[in-house]
Write a structure and sequence with these properties.
It is a single chain. The protein is α/β, with parallel strands linked by helices. The chain folds into two domains: about 5-80 and about 220-305, Glutaredoxin (3-Layer(aba) Sandwich); about 85-215, Up-down Bundle (Glutathione S-transferase Yfyf (Class Pi), Chain A, domain 2). The protein is about 45% helix and about 20% strand. The chain is built from eleven helices and ten strands. It has helices spanning about 15-25, 40-45, 65-75, 85-115, 120-130, 135-140, 145-165, 175-190, 195-200, 205-215, 225-235, and strands spanning about 5-10, 30-35, 55-60, 60-65, 220-225, 255-260, 270-275, 280-285, 290-300, 300-305. The protein has a ten-stranded mixed sheet with strand order 5-2-1-3-4-9-8-7-6-10, with helices on both faces. Helix 4 (about 85-115) runs antiparallel to helix 7 (about 145-165) and helix 4 (about 85-115) runs parallel beside helix 8 (about 175-190). The mean pLDDT is about 95. The chain binds glutathione. Glutathione binds near residues 12, 14 and 66. GO terms for molecular function: transferase activity. This is Glutathione S-transferase. Keywords: Transferase. InterPro entries: Glutathione-S-Trfase_C_sf, Glutathione_S-Trfase_N, GST_C, Thioredoxin-like_sf.
Length: about 325
């Protein structure tokens, strides 16, 4: 049985990035479908309360956020690489796309399907995730601006594809392709490809690139229940983080910290620092249900605050 477990739901575009990554790397994986609206008590036990989706689990190691999930899958199976032109360009493009297009994409999406979104979904997204009202009426006043933004950014994709080849950073697919694909996938899948292609003026290069990415597929998955995933975590021992005591702000291993996303769903996860470097932080959490787990986060886009005072002395 594969060690890789993805907690996700079908309509989640951030999950689609990772499903495609699993397909691209030819990895077998276990699929745990979670509710689109919390509560997700078993997933909360695994993450310490991080509330976004997807989450990757490998035994007792839990990876929160697609950036650190990319990295984990790259470690598990280095080839084909997600960083054919280096990590910097892929990560920078990914962060730009996710941060700049998420709200505009939601604005365009709800213009098409907003009336079908249940009240409890909208309330949850406003109160606990986005912090704004994503109903059709709530987003409508800014719709022209959302279309303008998406169109501008999609043009940049076209320019990259014209200059660089089949993929954004060159001849080979990178993590940036999977990221920049996902919100356009969300729109085309839910609103109709023809309508979105016309509204956002998607260039033929962008449409052909999306077709190439869609053709990757999701690889070989096996369904798993949340209870089975929890049992896997409980039976496993976390891997050595292998990052050392290298937090750039001087927080020492052994310190109690909170790790919180800096954009939305700002729920702090509390644990003991077990490893950190400039790109990743790993904290240990303990619970009777899952035993000891190591929870991994990227550094970009997250804030780590020491709660106990055991800062490393500056070298
Ligand atoms: N930066 C995060 C963003 C993840 C994210 O926003 N995911 C959406 C689903 S596509 C989400 O969690 N929505 C709220 C929820 O499902 O609870 C990542 O890259 O994983």
């Amino acid at each position: 049985m594969s060690d890789i477990i993805l907690h996700h739901y079908d309509l989640s575009p951030f999950s689609e990035k990772i499903r495609l990554t699993l397909g691209y790397k030819g990895l077998d994986w276990n699929s745990v479908i979670v509710e689109a609206v919390p509560p997700r008590p078993l997933l909360d036990t695994l993450t310490g309360g991080y509330r976004r989706v997807p989450v990757l689990q490998v035994g007792a190691d839990i990876y929160c956020d697609t950036e650190v999930i990319f990295h984990a899958l790259e470690r598990i199976k280095p080839a084909p690489t997600l960083y054919p032109t280096g990590e910097g360009i892929s990560k920078a493009l990914s962060l730009w796309w996710d941060r700049s297009t998420w709200k505009p994409a939601i604005g365009v999406l709800v213009d098409y399907i907003g009336e079908h979104l249940p009240e409890e979904f909208l309330k949850d997204r406003k109160d606990n995730y986005l912090g704004y009202d994503m109903s059709k009426e709530g987003m409508a006043p800014m719709l022209p601006a959302y279309v303008q933004q998406m169109t501008a950014f999609a043009d940049w994709l076209a320019s990259m594809l014209r200059e660089n080849g089949d993929y954004l950073t060159g001849k080979h697919l990178s993590a940036a392709d999977l990221t920049c694909y996902h919100s356009l996938w969300l729109l085309r899948a839910n609103c109709g490809a023809e309508a979105i292609d016309a509204q956002l003026g998607l260039a033929p290069e962008v449409i052909a690139w999306m077709d190439r990415i869609a053709a990757i597929g999701h690889g070989n998955k096996t369904d798993m229940t949340p209870e089975e995933a929890l049992a896997v975590a409980k039976a496993a021992t976390p891997a050595h983080p292998g990052l050392g005591d290298n937090d750039p702000s001087g927080i020492a291993v052994g310190t109690t910290v909170t790790v919180t996303p800096d954009d939305n769903a700002r729920v702090p996860v509390t644990g003991t620092l077990v490893g950190a470097d400039t790109q990743e932080i790993v904290i240990a959490i303990d619970s009777p249900e899952a035993g000891r787990l190591h929870v991994h986060f990227p550094r970009a886009g997250f804030e780590t605050i020491a709660q106990s005072n055991s800062a490393r002395s500056a070298a």
